Amino acid sequence: MKEPVNKIQLRSKLGWGGTTPLPGEEVEQRLTITEKGRVYFSGYGIEKEIRTINKTISKDVAKDILQSISAYFQVGHQEALVTDVGYWELTITTANEEVHLFRGSLIGLMPTNQPDLTNMIRELIEIRNLFVFGGGTPSDQIERVYLEFDDETVMIDRKGGSLEYAKRKNSQKFFYHLYQDSNEVSKLLDALGLLKVPKDSAENSCKLTIDYYTENQRMIKGNLEGENWFSFLEKIKDFIVSQEGNQVLFK
Hints:
With about 250 residues, the protein is of the alpha+beta class. It has 2 domains: about 5-125, Mago nashi protein (2-Layer Sandwich); about 140-245, no CATH class. The protein is about 20% helix and about 35% strand.
């Protein structure tokens, strides 16, 4: 690739590993970046498109990304095939319309003395939960959610692989429910990471604390009718219903 790169198109698809994706969970992402700074992103579930984001980044940032991708793949990409983790397919189009195709498993690229491309793209184009080439951990990955509403609490913890629900009946009695499955809990937190974060409001019957991988903790107060609260809470309720067969949350 001696010519400058005009455009890259990246398709990243997760491997299911024998588990069925949750409703609303992204399993495939398509990303296009052009030399003019245009970014086109789409995220797909099993049956339908879930997210579409079109945005503009500076031409200088776009140039840095495209030049870094060109430099890495000029050296000679060694394809590593790993089953069940998913794969990526990259199309690079140069200024003279030459097209170069590469593919690999969704485990990250081989280490070089250049910046890690997955982390670089995640940081520079600022779209949440990007698969890219796989590997690494996004700074905005949700690690823990703690939700308080009246006499009910929910804690979802990636490290512990658990969802804990408690409802206090009185000063001496409470109902407690523990669900443990690291894979399913991680999938739930990833799905929550795709949603718009609930916003603060004057009415604060709900309290939400979100811990991220490296980003600052967020503490939000609001109510069930507040902006973005409904979809966030429904995602948690749907998960509980799918695993337990009945609804125990916020009746």
